[in-house]
Design brief:
- This protein is α/β, with parallel strands linked by helices.
- The protein has a domain of 279 residues.
- It contains 27 helices and 22 strands.
- The strands form 6 sheets. The chain has a 6-stranded mixed sheet, with no helix packed on it. A 5-stranded parallel sheet has the order 13-16-17-18-19, covered by helices on one side. The protein has a 4-stranded mixed sheet with strand order 5-4-1-6, with no helix packed on it.
- A hairpin with a 2-residue loop joins strand 21 and strand 22.
- The longest helix is centred in the first third of the chain and has 33 residues.
- The protein is globular, with a radius of gyration of 29 Å.
Length: 742
């Protein structure tokens, strides 16, 4: 800490100096905007798609200028004015001074980038295809790579005359030979090859990957890694090279080691060879980015909402087999012989993911024979598909049935959403839901693992790992009016979650109150199922700090509140797709709901639980908790398929989420929780699970129910015949009544 004494004060002083300097404000903020606007009209004609191609290069040029001219000139000026000499007499260290310059440069760069993006979006209406988080990481990596290079120039330059000369010698080749100032695909092959030796090439590549191609972190790993190594090599020697006075000799050994380190990094890349996406012209995209085959198909004309927060107007998605091979703006050219489907005026989102279902439950009142039939389960898988839900996570269902379904879907033997599962759930002896399964001998033991010691909890998790489950679900539930349960002990919970982490398994915990939510969070759970009505702001902050996901399942709370209050189901989607006898069973005098309805205490409990859950969710959303959309379908009043679409509606209307955020909660965020990168997004390499909508769901989330077409693994589904045509041979070997509350 002694080495960093004064860092905050010095950084703040540098920032104040920059904000008060007209020259600094001009070069850091105004000039980059002039560059952006000028280049956008000169090279992009002011049109959204061409301008979007220009912006990554402009941002690269401005970052280079900020590093080589902003940092170096500031350092040399301070040295010439003997201000460094005065610092030398204080407790300030070279590390403090170097880091203060780095902090100042980083702040200036970030402000400049934000302004550039704001102008590009507002003035030219460009589309950003990648997520904002990935773009922020790309910009930070660019700053991390070039700030130490600017510091290097500032350290070795003798005075204000030599510093600009050195900066120009670096700036212009890095700008013009990297594809930043002029597209790399215009240049000869030998220059494209030479460009692989330049760090700025990888910043252009990285920004294009995110902004134009919508790539995620996995796809940008190579250019990101090269820039990260550049920054590490640069920062490693900057303190060694720093000089307090112009008369001090340059540390030649440090300079040689710095250059040698960079030469090793880029020499290795050059020798290995690097295929640069930026070296391919846009019109060569169909022949350069992927190989045309007899199975290539193109969907074009629609607005693409990629599930990552990106948006592409008049977009194009290229399919090959069951995967997406290319995504981007439609460039007007159509390869000969390639089938093209025109979706102009429509909107495309990834296939939705329901993050919490119980396929064995019907959504009814457990009084209709149809609710327990295997045919009902098969039918519900088709309803999911008809409504654009192409994946689901089943939490507490028959593990063998779900594993067989997973295999049949993967092999193409069954038309159904891609299933993910928890298998048997972990609870206390006689706890929820084991007690509800006691009506059938052996069922509770099959569907749950009831543990009373840390050793038993560890054993249960290892059994689940051997079953190849996708997630481990645990229960912390005390009960509700007329029903109480023993609760899993804290040592058992901790042992189970610890073992799951050791085995690489994710965990999620069913909770019923704030105390149990805190208990799960502190034990290291990855997710929380259901929003506790008494959720506190302190617990919400813990979720944010630890990155714990929340699957609110508001529609389940709403469904039970309505069923207990005797309110009939009026959802048009339920009326269209659900078996009428199952819907009617909610009002049947033979259902357990009818019996519970006789108790005012019970009715009030469910009504108030829903109202309080809405309030808790609003506070969680406002605090930026990671929310996942899950319907808890299979419980009374929450039906398979319509339940998720209603959940999205509730997340926006009652939870305060934006429609765009709600879509992410049912696509990429849901996939990320499962560790899946090939679902929940429209991006190269992902499964071609796609939903085409009549209206823009980012304006009105209810547009997700206006489904025009659904693609499952690249195959367009005939939605009108899904319930009449046989989907395959899979059928559950075992079915059981839906528990009253999951």
């Amino acid at each position: 800490m002694i080495q960093l004494r004064g860092l905050g004060a010095l950084s703040w002083a540098y920032l104040l100096e920059a904000s008060r300097s007209k020259a600094a404000v001009f070069w850091n903020l105004v000039f980059p905007l002039f560059t952006l606007i000028g280049f956008s009209y000169i090279f992009g004609g002011g049109e959204p798609v061409p301008v979007a191609r220009v912006v990554p290069g402009i941002m690269t040029i401005n970052l280079l200028a900020a590093a080589f001219f902003g940092i170096s000139m500031h350092m040399v000026t301070l040295r010439e004015k003997d201000l460094y000499r005065r610092f030398w007499a204080t407790p300030l260290t070279p590390l403090t001074v170097v880091l203060a310059h780095s902090v100042t440069a980083l702040v200036n760069m970030l402000v400049s980038v934000v302004l550039q993006l704001a102008v590009a979006l507002a003035l030219f209406h460009i589309s950003l295809h990648g997520s904002a988080v990935t773009l922020a990481i790309a910009v930070l990596l660019g700053a991390f790579a070039f700030i130490p290079l600017g510091l290097l120039v500032g350290s070795v330059a003798q005075n204000t005359k030599t510093a600009p000369a050195i900066s120009n010698l670096l700036f212009f080749p890095l700008s013009f030979l990297s594809g930043a100032a002029m597209p790399l695909y215009f240049m000869p092959v030998w220059i494209q090859r030479l460009a692989t030796l330049l760090p700025s090439t990888y910043l252009v590549e990285l920004l294009q990957d995110v902004m134009l191609r919508g790539y995620g972190l996995r796809e940008i790993a190579i250019p990101a890694g090269i820039l990260a190594l550049t920054g590490i090599a640069g920062f490693a020697f900057n303190v060694w090279l720093f000089r307090w006075e112009s008369a001090q000799p340059i540390n030649r050994r440090g300079l040689v080691l710095t250059v040698a380190s960079l030469a090793i990094i880029y020499g290795a890349v050059f020798v290995h060879g690097m295929n640069l996406e930026s070296a391919r012209a846009p019109e060569q995209r169909n022949s350069g980015r992927f190989k045309l085959t007899s199975d290539t198909r193109i969907l074009r004309g629609m607005t693409i909402l990629d599930g990552l927060g990106g948006r592409i107007e008049h977009g194009e998605v290229v399919l090959e087999g069951n995967r997406i091979v290319d995504v981007g703006p439609a460039d007007g050219s159509i390869p000969k012989g390639v089938p093209v489907t025109d979706f102009s005026g429509l909107y495309m989102i990834p296939g939705l993911i329901d993050s919490h279902i119980h396929l064995g439950g019907s959504g009814g009142g457990s009084s209709s024979p149809e609710e327990f039939a295997p045919s009902r389960v098969v039918r519900d898988t088709q309803v999911f598909l008809a409504l654009g839900i192409t994946s689901f996570l089943s939490l507490a269902d028959n593990v063998e049935d779900l594993q067989r379904l997973k295999q049949d879907v993967a092999s193409g033997a069954m038309r159904a959403p891609r299933p993910f599962l928890s298998g048997p759930v972990i609870t206390a002896p006689g706890g929820h839901p084991a007690k509800l399964f006691s009506f059938m001998p052996g069922l509770a033991e099959y569907m749950t693992r009831q543990v009373d010691s840390p050793a038993a909890a560890e054993k249960a998790v290892r059994e689940l790992a051997a079953m190849h489950v996708d997630i481990v679900k645990l229960y912390l539930e005390e009960g509700w009016p007329g029903q109480s349960f023993p609760v899993l002990s804290q040592p058992c919970l901790q042992a189970a979650i610890r073992t799951a982490k050791e085995l690489g398994l994710r965990t999620t915990v069913h909770v019923d109150n704030d105390e149990h939510a805190r208990m799960a969070i502190e034990a290291g759970a990855d997710g929380i199922e259901h929003v506790p009505p008494d959720l506190t702001d302190q617990t919400i902050q813990r979720m944010v700090n630890k990155g714990v996901t929340l699957t609110p399942t508001l529609v389940e709370s709403e469904g039970l509140a309505m069923a207990m209050s005797g309110v009939p189901v009026t959802d048009p989607l339920v009326q269209k797709w659900e078996n009428p006898s199952i819907v009617a069973s909610l009002q049947s005098p033979d259902s357990w709901i009818a019996r519970s309805r006789q108790s005012k205490e019970t009715v009030d409990y469910y009504v108030q639980r829903f109202e309080r859950a809405k309030n808790a969710l609003r506070r969680a959303v406002a605090a930026h908790v990671i929310v996942l959309a899950g319907s808890d379908s299979g419980n009374p009043g929450s039906f398979h398929g319509p339940g998720l679409l209603r959940e999205l509606d509730l997340l926006v209307e009652q939870g305060g989420m934006t429609p765009s955020a709600a879509i992410v909660s049912a696509t990429s965020a849901a996939a990320r929780r499962l560790g899946q990168s090939d679902i929940g997004r429209i991006a190269p390499g992902a499964f071609a699970d796609l939903v085409v909508l009549d209206a823009d769901p980012t304006r009105d989330i209810r547009a997700v129910s206006a489904v025009r077409a659904v693609y499952l693994g690249g195959v367009p589904l005939d939605r009108d015949s899904l319930l009449s045509k046989r989907p395959g041979n899979w059928s559950p070997l075992f079915s059981y009544p839906a528990p009253s509350k999951q």
